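Design review, sub-item: ligand-bound model
Attendees: FS, YL, KQ
YL presented the inputs for the 3,4-dihydroxyphenylalanine complex:
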Amino acid sequence: MSLKEQLENLRQTSLQEIQKVVDLDALNQIRVEVLGKKGPITEVLRGMRNLSNEERPKVGAFANEIKSDLAEAIETRKAELEAKKAAAQLAHETLDVTLPGQSIKKGTPHVLTQVIDDLEDLFVGMGYQVVAGYEVEDERHNFEMLNMPANHPARDMQDTFYITNDLLMRTHMSPNEARDLENHDFKNGPIKMISPGRVYRRDTDDATHSHQFYQMEGQVIDKNITMADLKGTLEYTIHHIFGEDRDLRFRPSYFPFTEPSVEVDISCFRCDGKGCNVCKQTGWIEVLGAGMTHPNVLKAGGVDADVYGGFAFGLGIDRFAMLKYGVDDIRNFYLNDVRFLNQFTQEG
Ligand code: DAH
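KQ shared the predicted structure:
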């Protein structure tokens, strides 16, 4: 076989191999074998020594032609294989963006938290500060500073869980009034604070009583605060929570920390004041306690009662939520039954 024939054979077999190969590594292997220094073309070209001077350049040129043909064939095949590989990968990774998504279960604040958040937003908007306190309180802040010295009969109004002789689970949020009075410097302006939180009483749980529930205390202390300020503030609050149509009624009452003291009723939203089972036929629903801060409370907090005065109020968050949403058993708030809680899921 002449050198030319050998080269032509090589071209044919190599081209077939290149066409047959299906993966890029194998193709690379062929490239090294066929075109490399130790490859068959180089081998064949060694035989050129024996050729005549005329023939040598022709065969050389032919060999080079074959080399570049094969290199081109390899490049073409390489591009084909790469495109195939990319297509397979794309097919495998195809994403149908029109498929319905998997919905993510989203949590939502507890209904009592929603009521607290709502009230906080309202009062912060009026320039109040939100004050935190301690669920474990001492007698001094829970009772004494609020004008309830030892043996004061009013202490019985709030059956107390004692931890030690002096420490107890706070029975109301009013201790934070005392704490705020103690800490406040009127150089920084008046006191305008609210304090929502959990309170504890030794009560037997039933539809309207719970041994732990939520209250929100509010207090404003400055010069020249009157009961009209209290009334306006409560009216604004009640209208925000229960709607503009509600009427308010102040009834004289007694709390040791306020003088005068009132209980506040709203006109029944079920019967609009005509009388029904929600308002026990009275047309009115009691919603909170309030009054003008007692001078003894101011004094206990180190505030000059001749110069400063103000009002305070305490409302039950659970009671607000029960009335607002028509919940008839307070225990529902604490059972964490999602079927109940989901009714108050906030959208968006
Ligand atoms: N601390 C009272 C309670 O737990 C609620 C209350 C009534 C708070 C009248 C006040 C108030 O600030 O003026 O029942």
